[in-house]
């Protein structure tokens, strides 16, 4: 059982790396650097692929932490 959870943790870790690399990059121009980016574009709602990738990354992160806690509990017994 421990090996199954360990394998799932490794798979989820790789998927988190892939999901993070697939997210669109934010433009870092001089105005955003000086104002912090929240003045013009920071409050807009994410749509389409960007919103989907954010949800996928969030679900994978929650799954990662749940698996890590389960593995920590199993290794202490």
From TrEMBL:
Short name of one Pfam family: SecG
Task: Give the record's membrane topology.
Answer: Multi-pass membrane protein
Keyword check for Hydrolase, yes or no.
Answer: no
Q: Does the keyword Transport apply?
A: yes
Recorded GO MF terms: protein-transporting ATPase activity
Q: Where in the cell is it found?
A: Cell membrane
Where is it predominantly found? Answer: membrane
Domain of life, per lineage: Bacteria
Any single GO BP term:
protein transport by the Sec complex
According to the record, the segments passing through the membrane are 6-22, 56-74
InterPro entries for this protein: SecG (IPR004692)
> What UniProt keywords are attached to this protein's entry?
Cell membrane, Membrane, Protein transport, Translocation, Transmembrane, Transmembrane helix, Transport
Q: What cellular component GO annotations does this protein have?
A: plasma membrane
- What's its job? Involved in protein export. Participates in an early event of protein translocation.
Stated name of the protein: Protein-export membrane protein SecG
């Amino acid at each position: 059982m421990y090996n199954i959870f360990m394998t799932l943790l490794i798979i989820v870790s790789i998927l988190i790396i892939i999901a993070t690399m697939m997210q669109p990059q934010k433009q870092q121009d001089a105005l955003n650097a000086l104002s912090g980016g929240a003045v013009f574009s920071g409050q807009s709602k994410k749509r389409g692929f960007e919103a989907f990738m954010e949800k996928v990354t969030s679900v994978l992160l929650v799954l990662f932490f749940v698996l890590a806690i389960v593995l920590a509990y199993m290794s202490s017994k």
